[in-house]
Amino acid sequence: MTSADTTLALSDLTTPGGGLDLGPGPARLLVGTLRLLAQEGPVTRERARGVVADLGVDRVQADELLEAWTERGEDGDIVGLGVTYNPTAHQMSVDGVRMWAWCAMDTLIFSFVLNQQIAVESQAPGSGGTVRLRVSPSGITDLDPVYAVISWPARDTDQVDMSSKAAIWGTFCHHSFFFRSRAEGDMWASGRDDVVMLEMDDGFDVARELATALLRYEPS
User: Is domain 3-214 in CATH 3.30.450.410, yes or no?
Assistant: First the structure.
């Protein structure tokens, strides 16, 4: 996949009406719940209802979306929606509190959504090597190793499925990881034509575009 293909796919995904244009209600619900998870931890059903009321999202639609999109604890609390308290390969520290993300690109996107610095420690598939970094809306720092890359599945709108958490994982999350080198990433993605390896600066730029699309309906 060429850089031009990646640019075209990203533009298609983030344009109004594209795959990441969820509409005002769903987009604000996703962002609001994600922020609440990062700021307060697992979200009770009662707290989730309060968020829905505060956002003015249709209650029936919100209940359906949260049921489809979220991970739940044994007591029914929301424990994951992008940000998760179920351990994954992508550990984050936000204001000193440990949590995880569904995929590598999420960790970069969330710096914009949360508007703060995030410390990341992520395990690469295959080798199990660790990549560490700090990311904020102003950029990536403390990258270790300095030659690390990030994989991203370039998807057109017609390839995107946001109908459930499993669909989101299958569309994006199972294909986005940090790798300690391009050679390591290329070995993992060998034979695939739908995944691109991005230098970290380029990955940060992609994350900014994706975050902008998700935040489209947020108040100025």
Answer: yes
According to DSSP, the residues that pair with 118 across neighbouring strands are 135
Per-residue pLDDT tens for 202-220? Answer: 999 999 999 999 999 998 7
pLDDT in tens, 98-108: 999 999 999 99
Residue that is written with structure tokens 């070995």 in the block: 187
Specify whether the backbone of 82 is left (phi greater than 0), alpha (psi in -120 to 50) or beta: left
Sheet holding 97-101, edge to edge: 71-72, 78-81, 83-84, 97-101, 90-94, 118-123, 130-136, 139-144
Q: Specify burial of residue 220 (Cβ count, 10 A radius: 0-12, 13-18, 19+).
A: exposed
All residues at 6 or more sequence positions from 182 whose CB lies less than 8 Å from its CB, including other chains: 147, 149, 197
21/214 Cα distance (integer angstroms) = 7
